[in-house]
Amino acid sequence: MPKDAAVEEFAGLVRALKARDGRSYEALGRRLSVSASTLHRYCSGATVPEEFAVVDRLALLCGADEEERRAMEAAWTEADRARRRAASPAPTPVPAVSAAPESNPDPSAPEPGPGPAPDPTAPDPSAADLSATEAPRTRPRRGAPAPLLLAVAVALVVLALAAVLLGDPTRTASAPAPASTAPGRTAAPLPFTWSIGSQLWEGGCGHTYLVDRAPRAVAPPPVAADSGAWARTHGAVHGGEALVRITIQGRSPSDAVVLHALHVRVVDRAAPLLWNAYRMDNGCGGAVTPRHFAVDLDRPRPLARPVDGLDASGAEVRKIPAVSFPYKVTSSDPEELLVSARTAGCDCRWYLEMEWSAGGRTGTVRITDGGKPFRTSGTRGRPVYVHDSAEGRWITDSDSGQTG
């Protein structure tokens, strides 16, 4: 299929999604139920998917936000039109049909000239009997012959069907799809800001990471403040549980933003990773367990459930009551939400959606880990290691084999 600007633009967006995710064509293709070669053809612009659904699944898997998905849909729509135009044969031109003047039936005979003026006293020749020796001369019928009329009718039917199936042929390739937001269109800014912390440890010291490395190739545990750099260096994935802190602050001191609900969206489920588990503590424990939203990623439709917290720092254990939606935030009154997402049976990629309203506007914001889904994998049955600071090496923790 010849490439045009719309196909090239769409292929560039698909390549950007693939590069952002970092996985191979084969690994991404398995998640999308397409072959590696098919996904490569999408990225190179050699072909365009026949349905947007596969593109939307790729966007979700690679952490694209709502605005990016709208841009992807608009780009796919234009590329799909180009694909259809390239695949459809051009209609055969139909010669114009007009009434032809009468012609001389005998090409060897001279064209008849103007005759003398009729004699008004002469008898009407049309009433005379034809001579038995003179056969009547047949004159051609006016208009097109029957086969040509049939061809014209068939061509008109074909053109009408093509117009219905392919859309208005007068629309240019640069026209945006009516149901999509054109690429580059700027949406109104959110009435609030949000930020996340995705490398949190329980109590500031307790956490487990899965790392695809042998113990001798893994650095000692970092302090909690340096956990993000340590995890990136080792390609680590949260083991058993991921803690995500969301801080939301309004832009105005007086106009409140109402947060109505927090939804969990799992975009990919796979078998738990067969990696080694490394614990960042040796059972430190925390005096305060904050209230939070608990998410069970192993459920078919995970929910963010508000949970009480506990304060054991004093003489008595004090319960910190859970607070559920709705919340109100302003610039001077921000809100901090803690989400605890656990799994034992999957390698899950997931993100959050926050419903909000303010000043007559409503919307949903997608909360991701820097543009990518959060990732949590179960650790059951994996070798578990703790760090022996005296010997300066990782050792097997035989009592932690059922972690996660």
UniProtKB/TrEMBL annotation:
Keywords (alphabetical) are:
Membrane, Transmembrane, Transmembrane helix
The transmembrane segments are 146-166
Q: Which domain of life is it from?
A: Bacteria
Compositionally biased intervals (Pro residues): 107-123
Which residue ranges does the record annotate as region Disordered?
Answer: 73-141, 363-382
Which Pfam families does the record match to this protein?
HTH_31
Bias kind Low complexity: ranges: 95-106
Q: What is this protein called?
A: Helix-turn-helix transcriptional regulator
Native organism is Streptomyces glycanivorans
